[in-house]
Amino acid sequence: MSKHIPHTLVEIQYHCYQFNKMNRSSEAEYTHCSMAAIADIDKVVKEEIEVHEDPVLNQEVEVSVKQEWECNQCDKSFLSNGILIRHQRTHSGEKPYQCKECDKAFSRNYKLIIHQRTHSGEKPYQCKQCDKAFSRNDNLIIHQRTHSGEKRYQCKQCDKTFSLKHNLIVHQRTHTGEKPYECN
């Protein structure tokens, strides 16, 4: 059964163990690998290596299969069809994950789960040094810098350091004179 697989690259390496040399064939596009019975190639996510015996050459042949799924709207390619489908939502604006509590919808399920915590009040990420809890792990990590004293954001004009990027941005306005907010 031959199945056309878009952008499947098969690279074959011939190992001659008699002379301990390796000759590498050039990459080419194939619809299937003639030397390997590769079923369900759709499930190939990362590079898979299979070793076969070639009866004609009487040498061991290493077949490397790398599949790329290309977006038809931009020139990005992906290692699985699922990742491609998720990417294509950036073009279509499709948001299949709908919040049941409000009218918000999301392109990714994990974003819906994080959003639902605003309704439930769930804060599963707890700081081990104080009683603060957070709905998102990245917010906990940022908070933990207040305990460690880590200040990774440095002003290039006066070398003052900050633990939060937002605080650096606000500070930089003292150098530029920028006043982004207007009084009514």
UniProtKB/TrEMBL annotation:
Do you know which Gene3D superfamilies this protein is assigned to? Answer: Classic Zinc Finger (3.30.160.60)
InterPro entries, sorted = Znf_C2H2_sf, Znf_C2H2_type
Query: What is the first-listed, main subcellular location in coarse terms?
Result: nucleus
Q: Which Pfam families match?
A: zf-C2H2 (PF00096), zf-H2C2_2 (PF13465)
Q: Is Transmembrane tagged as a keyword?
A: no
UniProtKB keywords = Metal-binding, Nucleus, Repeat, Zinc, Zinc-finger
A GO cellular component annotation in the UniProt record: chromatin
Record-annotated C2H2-type domain positions: 69-96, 97-124, 125-152, 153-180
Q: What would be an example GO MF term here?
A: DNA-binding transcription factor activity, RNA polymerase II-specific
Give yes or no: UniProt keyword Transcription.
Answer: no
Q: Where in the cell is it found?
A: Nucleus
What domain of life?
A: Eukaryota
Protein name as catalogued: C2H2-type domain-containing protein
User: Which species is listed as the source?
Assistant: Meganyctiphanes norvegica
